[in-house]
Design a protein that fits this description.
560 residues, alpha/beta, four-stranded parallel β-sheet
Length: 560
């Protein structure tokens, strides 16, 4: 305004007739991006996007805004408590100069949008329209489903379940710093780390793949918010378009239908595979913490895991269960430093990707295992049951036919029966406690602190932490991506309420311990951006470990 430029708030613009962006479920995002399309088409309007430091939704909306603007200049101002007027003035002056030059060139018809004939692959259900316009089934032998790594075991198992259903699925390797580096080259680095790692893994595969004619689909789950995870599909499609990756696309499953998009056969085998992987992950951590001879124990684990994967891919349901029985029996012979029941345990909760991703959690795992602490990672199945919980709430509101409700109920019963059989079998290994998932119990532990109406991972993180502490673990760590809003909300709640009194209230039980023994319960919240933890975080981890070891001794003496 001080430079005689008229300022128009974007919500003053008549932009309702314009499209927003794919799967844009944030109200402000819809309004901003519709306005951006209006600005793009108007010869006298130029956009200024005012954001604040570390705004989660804006980390996606701003790149969409810039994509919409194309070659039309715009200005982005990021504000925080340290913003100086001088810096803002410099950016504003530079933007005005660029806009004036753009206007001069436009009058001479020297500014035109670049066009190309690149055709992006499309996916419609299980039918693919490739970059040449040909229709191909997802189960065609030339189609490869790339499964991003979210923990070695879960990725192996999910890919094997897809192959069982006739889909040529390949698990991508565990992420490295090279994966992170590649991903950062494709993003602004303000998005959450799961997106960065998935994008980096996709491009690394594309660069290293020898079969350039294959059709590659990156698997990506999606949702309708509120978490940023539902934006990954739109963002990665933009990367594919920008990099002109021929015959590359995304295959998505959504929590709207409890991830049932590939049909009944895959739903059953996929659930079995992920349940096995969830349990095996915690068995693996227990082996690392408790086995006397870890080298031979790890060798046995890896050998048996390959056999289980082969059965998931090719075997009958009974043969999978039989292989699990064999595995449990062999593991039961491994000598332990202490019994699983008496071991110190820490529950690892938080955002579903980073808590399961070997790269994102590596430092935490290493630190805990140095002290022979058993890590109990919250399972992937927790979110699948949460999707079921949401579906049941919709059915209570009379959404869906009677037949749909009956089919859903039958599937849920089937899922529970599979879970019970797998967990009871693997508990015989002596490295696992048979603990069935109960999302309603988790939500009950959190509903006094978080409204169930606030959908997403916040209530699961809070509920799992309050449920596990003292009952199944002596300490809780919440791990989330840097700038993750659900993780930060959960952290703010748990930092205040993770104590003996609130635990008793959440459990609807009398105080289980005297406040004199330990009032505040061991809890640590950590964010990761892929870099090594700074010294202050490492110190907090050490303090947390000492608190957990102390609290474990108190629990062993407690009559409870």
């Amino acid at each position: 305004s001080s430079r005689d430029i008229t300022i128009i708030p974007h919500d003053f613009l008549p932009s309702e007739q314009f499209e927003s962006y794919e799967n844009m479920y944030w109200g402000s995002g819809n309004q901003v991006l519709r306005s951006a399309r209006f600005i793009k088409e108007h010869p006298q309007l130029y956009g200024t996007f005012i954001t604040n430091f570390s705004c989660g939704p804006d980390s996606f909306i701003i790149p969409y805004f810039r994509n919409t603007m194309g070659n039309k200049p715009s200005l982005t101002l990021e504000l925080d408590s340290h913003s100086a007027d001088a810096g803002l003035n410099t950016r504003i002056e530079a933007a005005i100069d660029i806009i004036n030059r753009f206007r001069e060139l436009s009058k001479k018809n020297m500014m035109t949008e670049l066009t190309d004939d690149f055709r992006q692959l499309e996916v419609h259900g299980d039918v693919i329209i490739d970059s040449d316009g040909k229709k191909v089934s997802i189960r065609d032998k030339n189609v490869k489903l790339l499964v991003p790594n979210m923990g070695r075991l879960a990725t192996d198992a999910f890919a094997a379940a897809a192959r069982y259903d006739g889909v040529n699925a390949q698990p991508l390797p565990v992420a490295t710093f090279e994966t992170l580096k590649t991903g950062r080259g494709l993003t602004t680095s303000k998005e959450c780390i799961p997106l960065t790692l998935c994008a980096g893994a996709m491009l690394n595969y594309q660069n290293e793949s020898h079969n350039k004619d294959e059709i590659a689909l990156m698997f990506m789950s999606t949702s309708c918010g509120p978490c940023r995870q539902g934006q990954y599909t739109a963002y990665i499609k933009d990367i594919i378009k920008r990099k002109k990756l021929r015959n590359y696309g995304l295959f998505t499953l959504t929590d709207v239908d409890s991830y049932s998009g590939l049909g009944k056969k895959f739903v059953i085998r996929g659930w079995m595979a992920l349940t096995i992987a969830d349990v095996m992950q915690n068995i693996y951590f227990a082996i690392q913490a408790l086995a006397v001879n870890k080298k031979s124990a790890n060798k046995l684990f890896d050998e048996e895991w390959k056999k289980i994967i082969e059965k998931i891919e090719n075997g009958s349901t009974d043969s999978v269960y039989k292989q699990l029985e064999i595995f449990a029996q062999k593991l039961s012979t491994i000598e332990k430093t202490t019994s699983f029941e008496n071991a110190v345990k820490v529950a690892l909760v938080g955002e579903i990707y980073v808590r399961n991703d070997d790269f994102s959690r590596r430092e935490l795992v290493e630190k805990l295992l140095e002290h022979r602490i058993v890590i109990k990672a919250a399972p992937i199945g927790e979110y699948l049951y949460y999707a079921n919980y949401q579906m049941k709430n919709l059915y209570k509101k009379n959404i869906g036919s009677f037949n749909d409700k009956m089919r859903f109920k039958a599937r849920e019963i089937f899922q529970r029966n599979i879970e019970i059989k797998i967990k009871k079998t693997l508990a015989q290994s002596g490295f696992y406690e048979c603990e069935l998932l109960d999302v309603e119990k988790i939500i009950d532990h959190a509903k006094k602190l978080v409204s169930p109406e606030l959908e997403g991972e916040t209530i699961l993180t809070v509920g799992s932490a309050m449920s596990d502490i003292m009952n199944h673990a002596s300490g809780v760590i919440s791990l989330g991506p840097f700038g993750c809003m659900p993780s930060r909300v959960a952290e703010s709640i748990l930092n205040v309420n993770m104590n003996i009194r609130e635990k008793a209230i959440a459990s609807d039980q009398p105080l289980l311990l005297s406040n004199k023994e330990m009032d505040n319960l061991p809890f640590l919240s950590v964010e990761t951006d892929g870099n090594l933890f700074p010294q202050i975080i490492q110190s907090k981890i050490e303090v947390f470990i000492l608190q957990t070891l102390k609290f474990h001794k108190i629990l062993l003496k407690s009559p409870q």
